[in-house]
Specification:
The complex is a heterodimer of chains A (292) and B (377). With 292 residues, chain A is an alpha/beta fold. Helices cover 35% and strands 21% of the residues of chain A. Chain A has helices at residues 19-31, 57-64, 75-87, 102-115, 156-167, 188-197, 214-225, 259-268, 280-288; strands at 11-14, 35-39, 47-48, 51-54, 68-71, 92-95, 118-120, 126-129, 133-136, 145-152, 172-177, 203-209, 230-235. Chain B is an alpha+beta fold and 377 residues long. Chain B is 40% helix and 25% strand. Chain B has helices spanning 5-14, 28-38, 65-75, 125-131, 149-160, 163-182, 219-222, 229-239, 258-270, 287-299, 317-331, 346-355, 364-375, and strands at 22-25, 42-46, 59-62, 79-80, 83-84, 88-92, 98-107, 112-118, 136-141, 185-195, 201-203, 206-210, 243-246, 251-255, 277-280, 305-312, 337-343, 360-361. In chain B, strands 7, 8, 9, 10, 11 and 12 form a six-stranded antiparallel sheet that branches. A four-stranded antiparallel sheet of chain B has the order 1-6-2-3, covered by helices on one side. The longest helix of chain B is centred in the middle third of the chain and has 20 residues, at 163-182. The chains are: A alpha/beta (292), B alpha+beta (377). At the A-B interface, helix 4 and helix 5 of A face helix 9 of B.
């Protein structure tokens, strides 16, 4: 078992003829992800790497039964692409595009809700269910099948930690990069809930960072609703206030959204917070063995 | 992106929000001229991109032209939170019966734009939010309908009680929402919104921030950008595909990825050092990017050692190592550099680097400790 993507995922790649779309479509296919279609207006009828290309998501869905979409289009057109997927009946959209205007995301959010579309991202590395499906730009070779659920706001920090987990024999059910933007799709609580309900997930690793209060909300959710152990790490303890730390959402504004507040919230909820990434496997082992 | 009060007031005025007259002045002579022409009580206000200007003495009431000149002399050139005041706004002093707060923000949790109003105007809203949150009225705006007349009116009615005043205020809320949407703002604040003894409602002070991601479609807003020295560096880095933020420490960091870059800074602090910067070079092995990044890093004279921290994912470590070697051949610096490579093809990458004699390690904590050690020599 896993969450969100698996062997039944039928993926359509929006922006498949662009540089990134093409490159990562190849990587995902190589991993064994079931890519059924690509979309690139004006290129219907072509094939790329054996993948049929369509003019619209609606055409792709009709012809192939695609149920999941990954978006590589430039930021200015990303919101439009997400809506196109949603209106075409795609159930899960993963938006990789970085630099999407915040108000574009605000504008499309209620429509996604009406259509019942789930969104991950934008500005995210995507997700992977090891051994089943890679839907994103994550480096597949560091992941391993197992029973740890993984959620992170970051990209390379995710790889850093997953690599440590894999080296310590903690394989993963599903790893989700939710992205670094302030207004994004599925977030910590949505995913914690899914991992709690996934029978194969035994524990969850959560990587947060400064900005917003999603970690505090996650801590409260864990305290109230979760039976499975969670271990956390928060990046940005040394970040100055008022500065956007690479990610649009990673900013301490008006003194709130600091790492100190987030760590305190997790500690209060009984979630151990690692001082550095390499401490995560140790804490996880201790938590699973009931030592802490 | 932030703008000055005088720029925010101009946007407000363009959208029909009543704002008292004001003149932007760069010299005491201009202040004198403006005060004389206004021929009434004025306020002289420092124009810097920092909050708490009033507390710092950067806002002064002047009853006479002489007062205005004295205020201009005091404020021009003064330092507010590390920023030098280069210009002041000379504006009509308005009689105030009552002050209010009106703001629009992007709310992460409701994923909508939220209208916030309070009868506690003229003070910092963050303080009100902390001390007496019940005094702030919040209204989440449905993105599909926008802020509707009756909604604005009902919120205003809670604030003003009187329906005539509420209608006046509601029209300001609607205009503020319109300009917020049309400029891709992330914050639009009128603080205070003032009620005069004659029952006029005016925006006395304004603050606006904008979404950096949307500047590509906001040429008018982008033209208002007046970056300070630090921001000039940050913007220059951004144009080279790097995200750079200067800090006060002495260990320069170069990292691929924002989260890992933050974690690297934290790690340096954890082991007793102090990071000189945040620097995310993104996911490529292009030597030019490394050269650009090193040039930015080493321009900071506080830097005593550099820690390069790369986790190779799709970008392979051996490619990164080749890029680093090329870059370092060009840069030629005496500052000690520690390279940490991990992930895809890390062993090959580390082997390549070893030949150059650079200190190389495979774990982040080792790299941090080594960089701290080297910075002390």
């Amino acid at each position: 078992m896993s969450i969100l993507v698996n062997k039944d995922t039928k993926l359509v790649v929006q922006g498949i003829t662009g540089r990134d779309g093409k490159f990562h479509a190849g990587k995902m296919k190589e991993y064994g992800t079931n890519i059924v279609a690509g979309v690139s207006p004006g290129k219907e009828g072509e094939t790329l790497d054996g993948i049929p290309v369509f003019n619209s998501v609606a055409h792709a869905v009709k012809a192939t039964g695609a149920n999941t979409s990954i978006i590589f289009v430039p930021a200015a057109f990303a919101a439009d692409a997400i809506l196109e997927a949603s209106e075409a009946g795609i159930a899960l959209v993963i938006a990789i595009s970085e630099g999407v205007p915040i108000q574009d995301m605000i504008r499309i959010t209620p429509i996604l809700k009406l259509n019942g579309t789930l969104l991950i991202g934008p500005n995210c590395p995507g997700l992977i269910t090891p051994g089943e499906a890679l839907v994103g730009i994550l480096p597949a070779m560091i992941f391993k099948e197992g029973n740890i659920g993984f959620i992170s706001r970051s990209g390379t920090l995710t790889y850093e930690v997953v690599n440590l987990l894999t080296q310590n024999d903690f394989g993963q059910t599903t790893c989700v990069g939710i992205g670094g933007d302030p207004v994004a799709g599925l977030y910590f609580i949505d995913l914690l809930e899914r991992f709690e309900n996934d029978p194969d997930t035994k524990a969850v690793v959560l990587i947060g960072e400064i900005g917003g209060d999603a970690e505090e909300q996650a801590a409260q959710f864990i305290a109230e609703k979760m039976t499975k152990p969670v271990v956390a790490f928060i990046a940005g303890q040394t970040a100055p206030p008022g500065k956007r730390m690479g990610h649009a959402g990673a900013i301490i504004s008006s003194g709130s959204g600091t790492a100190v507040e987030k760590i305190a919230a997790f500690n209060k909820a009984g979630v151990p917070v690692a001082k550095e990434p390499s401490e995560i496997p140790t804490l996880l082992r201790a938590k699973l063995n009931g030592q802490i | 992106m932030k703008i000055h009060e005088y720029q925010a007031r101009q946007i407000f005025r363009d959208y029909g929000i009543p704002v008292p007259d004001g003149v932007l002045c760069y010299t005491v002579y201009e202040v004198e001229k403006a005060a004389r022409e206004m021929n009434r009580m004025v306020v002289v206000k420092a124009q810097v991109l920092a909050g708490g200007r009033g507390k710092a003495g950067g806002v002064k009431l002047a009853r006479t032209v002489e007062d205005a000149v004295a205020a201009g002399k005091q404020i021009l050139g003064m330092d507010i939170k590390g920023l030098t005041v280069e210009k002041v706004l000379v504006t009509d002093a308005v009689d105030i019966a009552k002050e209010f707060y009106v703001g629009l923000i992007n709310d992460r949790n409701s994923k909508s734009i939220t209208l916030m109003v309070s009868a506690e105007g003229g003070v910092e809203i963050e303080e009100v939010a902390k001390e007496t949150p019940e005094k702030i009225i919040k209204f989440s705006i449905d993105p599909l309908t926008g802020l509707l007349d009756y909604q604005a009116r009902n919120v205003a009615l809670e604030l003003f009680g009187d329906i005539k005043l509420a209608q006046k205020a509601a029209s300001i809320f609607i205009k503020l929402y319109k300009l917020y949407i049309e400029t891709d703002a992330t914050l639009a604040e009128i603080n205070p919104l003032v009620l005069t003894p004659e029952n006029e409602i005016l925006a006395i002070d304004g603050k606006m921030n904008f979404d950096d991601n949307a500047l590509f479609r906001q040429p008018k807003i982008l033209a208002m950008r007046e970056p300070d020295e630090e921001e000039i560096q940050e913007i220059a880095a951004h144009e080279k595909g790097l995200a750079y933020i200067k800090l006060d420490g002495n260990i320069g960091c170069m990292v691929n990825g924002a989260g890992l870059a933050m974690a690297t800074m934290d790690m340096i602090k954890l082991y007793g050092g102090s990071p000189a910067n945040f620097l995310d070079i993104g996911g490529s092995s292009n030597p030019q990017k490394v050269i650009d990044a090193m040039n930015i890093l080493l321009a900071d004279k506080n830097v005593k050692a550099v820690m390069i921290n790369i986790f190779g994912g799709i970008t392979r470590c051996d490619d990164v190592a080749k890029g680093l070697i090329k870059a370092l051949e060009i840069i030629m610096t005496d500052i000690p550099i520690v390279v940490r490579l991990s992930g895809t093809n890390a062993e090959e990458g580390l082997a390549l680097l070893k030949e150059t004699g650079l200190p190389t390690v495979s774990s982040m904590s080792e790299a941090a400790q080594m960089a701290i050690e080297l910075s002390k020599r």
